[in-house]
Specification:
By secondary structure, this protein is α+β, with helices and mostly antiparallel strands. It is built from two helices and two strands; from the N terminus they run αββα.
Length: about 80
C-alpha cells in the first residue's frame, strides 16, 4: 500500500491528549473504523508517531479506500 498524507489537525479528535501510547492510538483508530460498519476482522492497525499503518485484507477496493480515509481522518494523524 502506498503513502497517503492527511492534514494533522483535522478530523475526529479520538486521542484527547498527546500522551496516548501508539498501541492505544491504534486501538482507538481500529474502533473508529469499525463504528462505520466496515468489516475489519482481517485488518491490523499500527501507529508510529503521526502515521497510521493498515495491513490485512478487505472485501472490496472501495471499502479499502474508505477505510484508509477513515483511519487518516483523525486529529493527530498526518
Amino acid at each position: 500500500m502506498g503513502l497517503i498524507s492527511f492534514i494533522k489537525n483535522a478530523g475526529s479528535n479520538l486521542f484527547k491528549s498527546e500522551a496516548k501510547r501508539e498501541e492505544e492510538k491504534a486501538n482507538l483508530i481500529y474502533e473508529h473504523i469499525k463504528k462505520f460498519g466496515f468489516d475489519v476482522s482481517n485488518v491490523q492497525v499500527a501507529v508510529d508517531n503521526e502515521k497510521v499503518m493498515l495491513s490485512g485484507k478487505v472485501d472490496t477496493l472501495s471499502n479499502k479506500n474508505k477505510i484508509i480515509v477513515t483511519a487518516g481522518n483523525v486529529e493527530g494523524i498526518s
